[in-house]
Amino acid sequence: MMTRVKGLLVLVGLTACGFASGALAGDSAGRGADEPGAVYEYFMRPPGPGEGYDTWAGARGPDVGEVEVDPGRLPSRVDNSSRSAFPPIYRQRYGTCGQYTAAATMFTYEMNVLNGTAADADERRFPATFSWNMMNQAKKTGSEAYHGWEVAKRVGLPTIATYGSVERLEVGAWPNGYDVWRDAMNYRVTGYRYMSALTVEQLNEARGWLYDRNQPEKAGGSIGGLLALDGRMGKKQERHRYTVKVAEGGYEAGEDLWKTWGPSGYGHGITCAGYDDNVGYDLNGDGRITNDVDINGDGEVTLADWERGAYIVVNSWGTTWSGDGKIYLLYSAMVDPTWKRGNYFGRIEVAKHVPRMTLRLKLSCDNREDLRVTVGLSNDPGAAEAEHALSPEALNGWPVFGGSGPGDVPLAGPGDDAPLELGVDLTPLLASLGAERGERAAVFLTISRAEDSDATGELHEAAVRFYDAAGEFVEEVPIRVGDGVFGEKPLAIRATAKMPSP
To answer: Helix, strand or coil for residue 437?
Structure first.
């Protein structure tokens, strides 16, 4: 299908994703739907940080609703899947749909757009299961796009070249090797945001994002972004009612089209790569395709009545699904009062990051959900306690995700008691010491377990690593571990290390 649409990509499959239609993630965080910044009417931020958490705070582009879009400047068709920055169409396994959209597709595309490169090699593509295994409780469950984006904000995402493949088959496994974690630190999400897709104004903002991110004034032009959405395709035996062919004799005749979501079923992550204002389908059977007739009988003409105009979306069910893995989705299908989980789009902004100071750990723990790690620094090399400290989300049960944690399994993964070598970015701590920092600083490392937990483990190796402003390795400073065992008692290590010049 879509002979003119090459290389689109969407998220994962429906029942495999495992999020029921009634499982809302939250509400509008106390704001009315018409208030500025009220972008979470149907989809909440991650539960851990609370209602005040601004997911777009680190981004530089305009926030949702900040730009008045002139629809007259927008072309009738945009297809970002035809760009070289767009990755291949994948075929998912298990409940990985959210991460095929968030990480393998959207993050890959955005990072290549940022760098002006093509997604034609593993060094420029990113995996789906690195982020998925951070929050799936070591099970085959589904995930939301924001899980991947939070992992990319707080840890980063490694390239496929370092990680090994787009989808490791070991459910719940974390990669063993400092180099994988160090690679991930380079590539980050700076901000993400959800917006509704219920009105013509919101449709135009989405179209503008797909065209040029609503930044026509940007020097050198702006390449359009992608959007994540959540579909509900209904039970497999009923999908033929919602997936139709564009009528013969019409524009894009014979192409597959979703005219509406199914009435039941699980959520399914999908990537929106573009749109076409001319694709249409006669929903009410009156022999016409209109956008100015009240076809649902509610007494007014809204986006819900539109029969013409469709998003270009891609599915992560492989290139054989729908002929080539792609399909049209009517604009009006996104206006569904029974599917509040799906009446939104998600978008991201990414950036390259240069770590200057990291922590290399070789660590074992029999329950990574209950593992607790804190790292601190003090400008005074003789200090008894840290002036500044951080607790890495990945080594503290991923509290940002609430109940969707890493699972009550060993640190390396289910059934794997071997030590795991990993890395933690300490650059924020280094920056907190300020430009007037001394030549040496005190380093504090505390490893323990959650309250009321019986988890145990051992620290086998630890070292602080430093990098120059270009990210090139400078030196490693080993930390004496000693006994290294923790569990009933926490492991507390204090060391001193020479600091790099500001």
So the answer is: coil
- What's the fold here for domain 14-350? Cathepsin B; Chain A (3.90.70)
Provide the Cα torsion 80, 92, 97, 244; round to 10°. Answer: 70
What residue has token string 């930044």?
215
Amino acid at 22: G
> CB neighbours (10 Å) of residue 177?
16
Which pLDDT tens digit goes with each residue over 398-434? 999 988 889 999 999 999 999 999 999 999 999 999 8
> CB 351: neighbour CB atoms within 10 A?
16
| DSSP classification of residue 173 | P
- Return the domain boundaries, the chain: 14-350, 354-498
Give the CATH number of domain 354-498: 2.60.60
- In angstroms, what CA-CA distances link 79 with 166, 199, 273? 24, 22, 6
Nearest to 348 by CA among 213, 222, 166: 213
203: closest CA among 193, 214, 192, 215?
214
- Give every CB contact of residue 214 below 8 A, 6+ residues apart in sequence: 62, 67, 69, 205, 208
* Rounded Cα–Cα distance for residues 21 and 33 (Å): 21
Dist. CA 286–CA 370, nearest whole Å: 61
Residue with tokens 């909440």, as numbered in its chain? 44
The burial of 67, by beta-carbon neighbours within 10 Å (0-12 exposed, 13-18 middle, 19 or more buried), is given as: middle
117, 352 contact by CB (below 8 A): no
pLDDT tens for residues 53-94? Answer: 999 999 999 999 999 999 999 999 999 999 999 999 988 889
Give Cβ neighbours of residue 66 (< 8 Å, ≥ 6 apart). none
CA–CA dist 369, 411 (Å, integer) = 8
Reduced to 3 states (helix: H, G, I; strand: E, B; else coil), residue 423 is strand
Containing 63, the helix (H) or strand (E) segment is none
Q: Is 396 exposed, middle or buried (0-12, 13-18, 19+ CB in 10 A)?
A: buried
Asked if 14-350 and 354-498 have one fold, the answer is: no
Distance CA 32, CA 434 (A): 41
